[in-house]
Amino acid sequence: MIKVLFFAELEEIVGSRELTIEKAELTVNEVKEYLKDKFPALPVDRAMIAVNEEYVDDTDVVKTNDIVALVPPVSGG
Amino acid sequence: MSEKLFLITDEVISIQEVVDKVVHPNAGAINTFIGTVREMTKDKKTIYLKYDAYISMAEKKLAQIGDEIQERWPDALVAITHRIGRLDITDIAVVIAVSTPHRADSYDASRYAIERIKEIVPIWKKEHWEDGEKWMGDQLEKTPYPTGKPEGEHLS
């Protein structure tokens, strides 16, 4: 099970801050494809991806109990 | 108050508390940057803002900025507090305090910190205008990141 977090406009589009994917292992790219499929309106490719609070590449692997976050362009400060 | 050097809070920020965290006998300068909520952006009038954050990661990324500053300016001490939730015009959104032995470095490191916040720290601002609202994207206008994340030296 992989947990995915959504923030800001992504949270509003999904309608929830988090969901779980019932898989034991996926690449980051596969997570993105899963989300694009499930939420066609979600601008997945505009988001950075963090796994366990660190930014990752598309080819990195996500394992069960990892927390994936979609980080849309930030606007703090 | 929190003793954390790198803090996300939903409470009003005390500038003094942030400054106090970088007081040091070897410091000859403490530079303080205060980011506040602006009413007019071009011809659009903001009524209020809402900030949201991925709090645990945001504090980690603020700490990373602190580490990056200490690599570049080894004698610097850094504390950063960013507020989230609803903020009204003139409210303080962020306070950065940097102390260094000599003043020039404190300016440079403070500038470095605010620019990096706008690149890597997962905090988002929602503008509320009279006629609508919108989550704001990257204010550096470099979005989207072609590789899906900040590139090269911006990481690590």
From TrEMBL, chain A:
It comes from the Bacteria. One of its GO terms (biological process) is Mo-molybdopterin cofactor biosynthetic process. Gene3D superfamilies: 3.10.20.30. The lineage of its organism: Bacteria, Bacillati, Bacillota, Bacilli, Bacillales. Pathway: Cofactor biosynthesis; molybdopterin biosynthesis. This is Molybdopterin synthase sulfur carrier subunit. Involved in sulfur transfer in the conversion of molybdopterin precursor Z to molybdopterin. One of its GO terms (molecular function) is nucleotide binding. InterPro entries: Beta-grasp_dom_sf (IPR012675), MOCS2A (IPR044672), Mopterin_synth/thiamin_S_b (IPR016155), ThiS/MoaD-like (IPR003749). Pfam families: ThiS. Keywords: Molybdenum cofactor biosynthesis, Nucleotide-binding. One of its GO terms (cellular component) is molybdopterin adenylyltransferase complex. Heterotetramer of 2 MoaD subunits and 2 MoaE subunits. Forms a stable heterotetrameric complex of 2 MoaD and 2 MoeB during adenylation of MoaD by MoeB. During catalysis MoaD shuttles between the two heterotetrameric complexes. The keyword Iron does not apply. NCBIfam families: moaD. Belongs to the MoaD family. The keyword Nucleotide-binding applies.
From TrEMBL, chain B:
Keywords: Molybdenum cofactor biosynthesis, Transferase. GO terms for biological process: Mo-molybdopterin cofactor biosynthetic process. It comes from the Bacteria. Signal peptide: none annotated. Its EC number is 2.8.1.12. Residues 135-156 are annotated as: Disordered. Pfam families: MoaE (PF02391). InterPro entries: MoaE_sf, Mopterin_biosynth_MoaE. The keyword Transferase applies. GO terms for molecular function: molybdopterin synthase activity. It is an enzyme of class 2 (transferase). Pathway: Cofactor biosynthesis; molybdopterin biosynthesis. It catalyses: 2 [molybdopterin-synthase sulfur-carrier protein]-C-terminal-Gly-aminoethanethioate + cyclic pyranopterin phosphate + H2O = molybdopterin + 2 [molybdopterin-synthase sulfur-carrier protein]-C-terminal Gly-Gly + 2 H(+). Heterotetramer of 2 MoaD subunits and 2 MoaE subunits. Also stable as homodimer. The enzyme changes between these two forms during catalysis. Belongs to the MoaE family. Converts molybdopterin precursor Z into molybdopterin. This requires the incorporation of two sulfur atoms into precursor Z to generate a dithiolene group. The sulfur is provided by MoaD. This is Molybdopterin synthase catalytic subunit. It comes from Anaerobacillus arseniciselenatis. The lineage of its organism: Bacteria, Bacillati, Bacillota, Bacilli, Bacillales.
